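Quick entry between incubations.
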Amino acid sequence: MIIEPNKENQGTMNSLKHISLVLAMAPLALMAQERFATRNGHIAFHSSTPMENIEAHNRKVTSVWDATTGAVEFAVLVKAFEFEKALMQEHFNENYMDSNTFPKATFKGKFGGVTAADLKKAGTYPVDVSGDLTIHGVTKPVTSKGTITVDAAGVVKATSEFNVKPEDHGIEIPGVVRKNIAEQMKVTVALDYAKM
Amino acid sequence: MIRTTLLACALSASPLFAQDDLLGLLGEEETGPVYTNASFKTTRVINGHSLENTAHGVLDFKISHRFGLLNQGIKNFYGLDEAEMRIGLDYGLTDRLMIGIGRSGYQKTVDGFAKYKILKQCDSGCEMPITLAVVAGTSIATLQQQDLPWYRPDITDYFTHRISHSMQVIIGRKFNESITLQLNPGVVHRNLVAGTDDPNDVIHISGAGRIKLTKRVAINAEYFYVLPGQLDDVYKNSLSMGFDIETGGHVFQLHFTNSTGMFERAFITETQGTWGDGAIRYGFNISRVFTLHNPKKKPD
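Done. Structure below.
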């Protein structure tokens, strides 16, 4: 009766050893992978013409950034763009983006110029963004400038701004509304990354 | 010991190989329900209601014309020399509830309705194969008693006699990008009818659909089948066919129909022309929307 619990203790000790070994290795793995992610990033686009200004906001942007390798990915649900006018939103999905056929816009590329080590210190770091932007099923290479901001609390924010031409992605704009829709859409990206 | 080390190595190494799919690391997305949109270009198929609602905060100004009979020939410029009109305003109180009022030249009638979407067809994030809506309307004829065809001369002209009601259930589905079909059974209640044998309640089962030809043009058709034995033989079932053309803020609906009136009592129970005789009319509805209020607006 007294010996048995001892045996059990030994068993526990053994598995503890194993766990501590795994734990000892774990920091190595974490050091190697500084990953950040969000599910509620903000992407907006603006079209301004003398006829009218159009803007739409999407606050459900998902993104994962591996600060170690610089690799970054974005996915945007096209139907989650919200417009001021309900009809604009309907036409955006139905007539321009074909969002039933192409439900998502994606970006796959790199954040260059900032290292995982930088993120340990508060500050603003310029980044070079490059990669492939897929909208309406058409992929185009894009490059842009962005900034990564780390505040005192260690919160990582990423912002960028670039232009997209609807025609580059096979989005046709009929003559009737050509004057109402800008040649270039100004796209702004703002994300609050959380560590994965 | 070796096994544990190997395991740890494997664990720390595997993410390095998984970089092709960074987003995959986030796991399943929780995007919430996405409802089907743009089943029809506007809230009417032709005369009858479609399963669509005016969005919350949107005012839809509708002007509709039905010209004279096509078979009147060149003398009457194939009907285009004369027209019946309806002017209407619809408004979305919420994304599910819309109301509307209208004034028709036909029997100088004022009509009003409310439409409520009970179920919304779902694209993803939820499961609902159909849209279900109910429409309840009332119309009041203001024409002089002696000019109303259904007003018997021997009875007192009470205000309630001029009223009729209609109720419809719309069950519809957008099958794919181009095809939407709906079934709309309903009843029209007339407070006063011409003959003592005429029923006050007229039951109909109706259907409508559209086929999109291009992104901005669709073909629509609708048929109101009044169950037999309810109406006099001079009254026919309403059949309409036409095109929807959308140009940004406007929807132009151009069609041919054998009905004259543009509210339920008129086109369901008082249609007189037949397609076979060419007793049909060219007509159009123009819809122009104004966003009066934006419920989604958030301070940025």
